[in-house]
């Protein structure tokens, strides 16, 4: 759909978004949004939290109790169903932790940090470490120099623009990104900003963090270590196969969907990047794409198709995001980007089309994807 609710054609979806400074400001958008959309309800937020937590526990209990009793033929069907179902619920749970990092869960920062620390630790994501790097991403979205993740390649990087810019290279890139993208980013800062040295979400001395943040990076590591110890105890009691089947593969599925969501919300042939001569915060925040994941929208707390409003107002909780989005869409006009291309098709298209960026031929400081 377009900003006014009209259906866009495939050609319209690939049309470059406006890059001139918008005729509206962030204050204009905020004034249009009903004040209650900024209210964070502890009851509603914990309702989503316990819904996901109970679902995760229920799936785990059913799988660990009953799937081993099934005949082998049925277990070959039941296990993949469990892996997919548990993986997408874990992704939704992770999104609530991400919301905590934005102080969008409640009115109390300590509650948000406590809940977010628990959620992300369970999902093997270092909570405070990710919170701080993600804050930098929101502060510099689509800045070529300072954005935190999915930094586009330049044509001069011939490994990507020539050696990998073909069918087999695209297939390899897609497989690597979706299967190893999240751990590669957290451990090796793959797809991340260049810090002129080794950057890592687990090392307190990493260039990603400042001195004030390093203690909480250690705390994040303690949370991860505690969950890994719990998994080790599960391995001792359940064995390697059941530990992988019950926990390992669902966490892997979660990491795959993490890449699907984050990559597709930030990568598109129609979206511009900016260098420091042209970048500003508002145009950067508008350089995001809302996507439709169909029946998974609710599982993901609608984060995938309210990402634009999230970048504009990250403290709006998920249960108010759709209302806020609908209010500002008429104001945003062509600056609002939505693509309803089926997700697998979109992932393949954007992997092929978004190889590197080059400067706009007319407007200095603006860069577009090429292949």
List strands and helices in order, with pairings.
Layout: H1 10-13, H2 26-32, H3 42-66, H4 72-101, H5 109-122, H6 127-139, E1 153-154, H7 158-163, H8 167-188, H9 214-238, H10 240-266, E2 273-274, H11 281-285, E3 290-291, H12 296-299, H13 307-312, H14 318-332, E4 338-339, H15 343-353, E5 356-359, E6 366-370
Parallel strand pairs: 1-5, 3-4
Antiparallel strand pairs: 2-6, 5-6
Could you tell me the strand content as a percent range?
Answer: under 5%
Total beta strand runs? 6
Q: Compute the number of helices.
A: 15
Largest sheet: 4 strands, mixed
Distance, first to last CA: 26 Å
What structural category characterises the helix and strand content?
mainly alpha
Helix content: 55-70%
Strand order of the largest sheet: 1-5-6-2
Features:
four-stranded mixed beta sheet, 371 residues, two-stranded parallel sheet, disordered N terminus, mainly alpha, 15 helices, globular, 58% helix
Brief write-up:
It is globular and about 65 Å long. The chain has helices at about 10-15, 25-30, 40-65, 70-100, 110-120, 125-140, 160-165, 165-190, 215-240, 240-265, 280-285, 295-300, 305-310, 320-330, 345-355, and strands at about 155, 275, 290, 340, 355-360, 365-370. Helices cover about 60% and strands about 5% of the residues.
Account of the protein in words:
58% of the residues lie in helices and 5% in strands. With 371 residues, the protein is mainly alpha-helical. It has helices at residues 10-13, 26-32, 42-66, 72-101, 109-122, 127-139, 158-163, 167-188, 214-238, 240-266, 281-285, 296-299, 307-312, 318-332, 343-353, and strands spanning 153-154, 273-274, 290-291, 338-339, 356-359, 366-370. The protein is globular and about 65 Å long. The strands form 2 sheets. A 4-stranded mixed β-sheet has the order 1-5-6-2. It contains 15 helices and 6 strands. The model is unreliable at 1-7 (pLDDT under 50).
């Amino acid at each position: 759909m377009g900003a006014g609710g009209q259906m866009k054609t495939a050609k319209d979806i690939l049309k470059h978004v406006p890059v001139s400074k918008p005729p509206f400001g962030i204050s204009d958008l905020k004034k249009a949004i009903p004040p209650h959309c900024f209210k964070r309800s502890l009851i509603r937020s914990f309702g989503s939290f316990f819904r996901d937590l109970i679902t995760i526990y229920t799936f785990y209990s059913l799988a660990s109790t009953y799937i081993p009793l099934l005949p082998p033929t049925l277990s070959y069907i039941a296990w993949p169903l469990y892996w997919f179902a548990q993986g997408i619920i874990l992704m939704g749970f992770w999104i609530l932790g991400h919301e905590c990092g934005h102080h969008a869960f409640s009115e109390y920062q300590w509650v948000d940090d406590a809940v977010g620390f628990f959620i992300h630790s369970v999902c093997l994501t270092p909570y405070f470490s990710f919170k701080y790097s993600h804050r930098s991403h929101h502060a510099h979205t689509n800045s070529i120099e300072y954005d935190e993740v999915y930094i586009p390649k330049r044509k001069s990087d011939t490994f990507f623009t020539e050696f990998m810019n073909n069918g087999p290279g695209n297939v390899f890139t897609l497989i690597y990104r979706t299967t190893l993208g999240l751990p590669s980013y957290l451990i090796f800062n793959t797809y991340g900003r260049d810090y002129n040295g080794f950057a890592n979400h687990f090392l307190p001395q990493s260039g990603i963090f400042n001195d004030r943040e390093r203690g909480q990076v250690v705390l994040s590591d303690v949370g991860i270590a505690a969950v890994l110890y719990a998994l080790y105890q599960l391995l001792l009691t359940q064995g390697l196969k059941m530990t992988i089947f019950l926990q390992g593969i669902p966490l892997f599925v979660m990491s795959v969907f993490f890449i699907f969501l984050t990559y597709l919300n930030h990568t598109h042939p129609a979206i511009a990047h900016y260098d420091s001569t042209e970048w500003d915060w508002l145009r950067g925040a508008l350089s995001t794409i809302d996507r439709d994941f169909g029946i998974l929208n609710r599982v993901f707390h609608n984060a995938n198709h309210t990402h634009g409003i999230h970048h504009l107002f990250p403290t709006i909780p998920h249960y108010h995001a759709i209302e806020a989005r609908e209010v500002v869409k008429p104001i945003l006009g062509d600056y609002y980007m939505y693509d309803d291309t089926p997700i697998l098709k979109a992932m393949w298209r954007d992997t092929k089309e978004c190889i590197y960026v080059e400067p706009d031929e007319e407007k200095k400081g603006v860069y577009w994807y090429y292949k």
